[in-house]
């Protein structure tokens, strides 16, 4: 006889905090299974969501950030890789902090998006 033991579910929460000087941040996150609509996050505020790991592993969330003419895409949670659960969005990019380790690390820089030129 084979017994399969269920793992207890663990709730994970990811926080994306707007630490920009004076601009509203647009945060749009999703996974393969969950689509989180876009959120306008004022300065000093956070967007956060909670979830349980996929039963078969491989939980992955990525986020698209936008502010004025800049864009940034990053992996916000990766079950198999190093995942921070606290993200701080600053004027030069996004920084992460693990809930167990106090070290803050640089994750990604902003990318400037130029308006498309109209051709006649």
From TrEMBL:
<dbReference type="GO" id="GO:0060320">
    <property type="term" value="P:rejection of self pollen"/>
</dbReference>
<keyword id="KW-0713">Self-incompatibility</keyword>
<comment type="similarity">
    <text>Belongs to the plant self-incompatibility (S1) protein family.</text>
</comment>
<keyword id="KW-0732">Signal</keyword>
<keyword id="KW-0964">Secreted</keyword>
<dbReference type="Pfam" id="PF05938">
    <property type="entry name" value="Self-incomp_S1"/>
</dbReference>
<dbReference type="GO" id="GO:0005576">
    <property type="term" value="C:extracellular region"/>
</dbReference>
<protein>
    <recommendedName>
        <fullName>S-protein homolog</fullName>
    </recommendedName>
</protein>
<dbReference type="InterPro" id="IPR010264">
    <property type="entry name" value="Self-incomp_S1"/>
</dbReference>
């Amino acid at each position: 006889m084979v017994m399969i033991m269920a793992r207890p579910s663990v709730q994970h929460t990811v926080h994306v905090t707007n630490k920009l000087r004076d601009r509203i941040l647009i945060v749009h996150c999703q996974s393969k299974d969950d689509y989180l609509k876009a959120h306008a996050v004022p300065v000093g505020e956070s967007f956060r969501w909670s979830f349980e790991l996929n039963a078969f592993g491989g939980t992955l969330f990525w986020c698209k950030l936008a502010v004025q003419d800049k864009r940034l895409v990053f992996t916000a949670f990766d079950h198999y890789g190093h995942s921070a659960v606290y993200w701080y969005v600053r004027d030069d990019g996004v920084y992460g902090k693990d809930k167990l380790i106090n070290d803050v690390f640089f994750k990604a820089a902003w990318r400037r998006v130029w308006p498309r030129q109209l051709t006649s």
